[in-house]
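Quick one: structure for this chain?
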Amino acid sequence: MKWLVVILLLAAGIGVCAADARLSSEALFLQGPSAAGARASSQVINSVPHYPGTPGDYRLAVWMRDALQGFGLRSWIEPFSATVYTPRILQLQLLTSPVVTFDLHDRPISADPDGSRPGIGIPFNAGSGNGDVRAPVVTVGRGLEANYASLASAGVHVSGRIALVRYGAEYRGNLAARAEQHGAAGVIFYSDSEGRGASRGTVYPNGPFHPPGIVQRGDVMGDDHRPLRIPTLPVTAITAGRLIADMRGSPMTHALVRLHVEMNARTTTLWNTVGEVTGSDPQQIVVLGAHRDAWVYGVTDDGSGIATLLEVARGLGNLHRTGWTPKRSIRIAGWDAEEIGELGSQAYVAAHRSELQRGGVGYLNVDESASGPTFGAAGAGALLPVLTAVAQNVMRVSNPKVDAPAGGSDFESFIYSVGTPVADLGYSGPFGTYHSPYDDLHFASTFADPGFVHHRAAAQGVGVLAMRIAESGAGAYRFAPYAGVLDDGLAAMTKVAERSGLTLAPELGTAIARFDRSARAYDALPARDSKESLRAVQQLDLLAYSANGYASVAFPHVAAALASGNQPRVDAAVASTSATLNNVSMLLEESHAPPGGIKLPATAGPSAKFR
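Got it. Here's what it folds into:
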């Protein structure tokens, strides 16, 4: 096996000595991450609630800094200011005779006393609007546009009423914003057995699925971080069931309810924790990140990511003590305030933007890296081959599927703001205690990752992936994998345009065809790190990827123009996107042009249909 890998490295332009050195370094690194170490970190994470801005949050920031330093990394804390939302008043009443005042706490589970420790507090939505609303409740199903259309066709209107929405169809911020757009006076969220619960399997504490007595917290602010105008509140399925049982008249409307929410909004100091193994070329960096904050304990979301990265740090520190130094710096970060809008990673990217634009060759995200047994990954096309190779050869995953980047975690600022290529990998499974106090050590050790074996495997994979990118820089990039993303994006937008009575100029299809030829020609030549390759990836990522909530959206400028319904705006977006894509193709052609110019294949490949 070793000599097979050496042959592959030679084919990529890496000498025998370099191949042996890389294999030796990786083998030494792989001995470092341990399941016992990940469990020990998880015990610390389980010790205190650490919502952003709380004493527990700062305590874990210092603990992570000291842990990184103990593993031999240079480490520090980067403070930043942000607005943090906490509840002042949360009340829900059914205005019957007598009035029913609901207990809004999560229900105790005797098998897991950690989840009902004192001081956990009442579940809430960060970014809820303030309001004291008395209105009928309307059941709006999953809160999608189709649900509102069905209600309207039945003569039921949401305006002025409180929308009862079942979590799960989309990012909760989108669901809340849609209810607000339809005139709802407030929103009550709940999870039930059709989503994460009993209809899918045994519920916690006897299984990993969502029990009816716990509540999914979460932010509702969206990308602009603006609070809603209307109050929102998450409740248990038991509470939602009581509201549904109190139907009067129409099967979709309910008796009068009082929803009273008052939120505190304060600007405070938060803390990103950072450690680094400095490279021989410190002008370029690979950043590894996981979020350290949680709604309560967050031992899986995202304590599993923090525990995983600390095991990466253990392995890198052990390796560094032997005299090994990466070519490019490897930086490990524990972000604050991901749960209320990815604020820590956004603050970091804002503060380090010029550094990332100049030399940020990759960002590896580790969020919920061990919530079950099933491997999953997402990544930009540039990192797809190296990510796939690590998944297969290091993590022993057969035929790993890698999705396009979407939304909902800290990689967003890196790829959607700077164009840094990203990868996100780990293990997933039924996670019924998500965003509740029962996302704790008991759930993690009983269902999410018994034995903490997937924490160790994820650390090994993330660490080796970071080492390979740090060694090769932009030389690790491949461009042909983007062609499918661009083709699929254009096909999807063409359908949207047709439904809207709009047209897409053919120049974007022509630009995609040129890119496909240039990318395949580039990838066929020996890999070479270059400023042109980095610039090409940054431009390509910015035009190829974006997110709407949790969903991936290609060609964001064109998609936004289509949503406006304005043909001149669509034409302008297509023209600018095509020009950028042609510039990327030119960078690839110039970057790897042999004497006499680059020789392009005669056929256009999968993009030919868009000529």
